[in-house]
Structure formats: C-alpha cells, structure tokens
Write a structure and sequence with these properties.
Length: 295
Amino acid sequence: MKLQINNLSKTYPNGVQALKNVTLNIPKGMFGLLGPNGAGKSTLMRTIATLQEPDTGSIQLGDLNVLTQKHEVRRVLGYLPQEFGVYPKVSAATLLDHLAVLKGVTNKKERKELVNALLERTNLWNDRKKNLGGYSGGMKQRFGIAQALIANPQLIIVDEPTAGLDPAERNRFLNLLSELGENTVVILSTHIVEDVKELCTNMAVINKGEVLLTGTPSDALAGIKGKIWRKAIQKGEITTYKTNFNVISERRSAGKPIIHVLSESQPEGFISVEPDLEDVYFSEIFGKKQLTMTS
Ligand code: ADP
C-alpha cells in the first residue's frame, strides 16, 4: 500500500492558493510533512482524508482513487485532526467502546478485547476509567490515536499532533506513531523539525502550497553538505549580514548571535558546520537560492 499524490492544486474562494501542483510519493512508514504555519499542510491532510476537494489533481491509495472512492477510503483511514475534541465527562474506555459500536463492532466480547488492546497499545490502560476532561494534552493525543486505530487503518494522518506536548509526552507519542509506521502509511504534518528528525523515513518540505523538497532525511542532509557556514557576530551586525549573505538562521549561544549562511563556497571569516535538518528546512524556507538535491 502506498499513497501517490499527483499535481494537486487548490485555491480557496478568497483567492488564497493553498496547494500548487503538489506531487508526492508516500510509501509505507512514517512520512514527515514539514512546513511553517500557512504552508498548506492542513489543506493537504484534509484533502487526503476525503474531507475536502482539490480543484485539480489526483490521489491514489493502493488501488483506491481517493477523490472518487471516498467511502472505501474512509474504511481504511485513521485521521487525527489538528483540533481534536473529546467528550469531557466520559471515560476513555467508555468512549472507545461506543465508537467501536459505531464502527460496526457489534459483538460485545470482541469489542471488549479490541478496546482493551487499544488502551494497552496507546499506554492508556491505567487511566482508562478517568474522564477525558481530566486528560493531559499528550493523553488526549494518544486517545486520538486509539480511536483512529479502531478501524485497523492502512493510512493514518496526524495533523500537527505535538503542539503543546511536553518533551516526555511528545516522545511517547512519536514513538507510538513510528511503531504504527512499521505496517502502515503514517503522515505526520508538523512545523517542528525535531518531530521529523529521528523517526521519519521519508519527508517533504512544503511552503506557500509548493513542495520544495522531498526524499529521505539523509538525502536532504547530503544535499546541503559543505554549503552551511557559521559565524558568531555582534548583536547590531545582523542586518548587514542579512544584506550581504544568504543568512538562513540566527541562533544564540551564551547570549551571542550565531548565524548560519548557505553558500557554495566558504565566505571569509565563517567556519564550516555539519548541517542538521534545521539547516535543510531553513535553507528551503529562507534561503534565497534553491538548492538542487535528488529526490
Ligand atoms: P497549514 O496547515 O500549513 O498551517 P493551511 O492548509 O491551514 O496551512 O492553510 C494554507 C493557506 O490557506 C493559508 O494561507 C490559510 O490562511 C488558507 N486557508 C486555509 N483554509 C482556508 C479556508 N477554508 N478558506 C480560505 N483560506 C483558507
């Protein structure tokens, strides 16, 4: 099973072009869709999840045409939207049981086994009787995954799931997703580079509706190797550097600004740095010239 998106475009009635000819080939495993706010990630996620229509283009999931076989796609889809509401006065176990009935699991014993397995899998077993209103952000997100898994989906879409999670919860959540990616297509949309760094087998960077880069994280790093340079500067110098160099990021070390510059050759006074995925991302989003890389 893989997901193939071809030349997808969408312009909203207010004139915003949210997707421009998006083409992506998404194999089994965890796929990171990385882009800043407003890049078009949610539009793409909702379109793949059959919740809205593109103007042009096609989406194929295995043998299914996602744009015309919505019903069939929904049967194999687990979707965790950006805003995930829960009924605050119901326990996780009760709500999962109820949702399983709605999904057609009518046999009581079978349903109990399914619900218990989902609670174990998402590490919510000990809190299964607590009302969802008392869940932390991370627990709610894991509950979101538990409910998405009821249908045993072949495609799982999670839209910006780690916003607001503390580091331990975030790790637990990402590890859960990465386990699911062993058998499933998992698409993780995020503006956080760290989310993609360790767990995603493939990634794309999207901005202003356009795919800027696609490939494995290591391909992406190889594409800018030897082209990222670093310099510690004075606070007041940043504007001058931005005018004269292709500054992609400004970080701070012990309060002092350190800039990273994208350049084919070594600018005077700069030292070479081993690029990380943030450099890839910032080069694509803020670099003045496009880098060439294989996809
Ligand atoms: P992201 O998820 O990456 O933040 P979105 O897909 O939500 O990006 O938005 C992409 C662009 O489309 C933004 O400029 C946003 O303001 C615009 N947009 C999103 N949804 C709508 C809508 N329903 N109507 C009009 N414009 C929209």
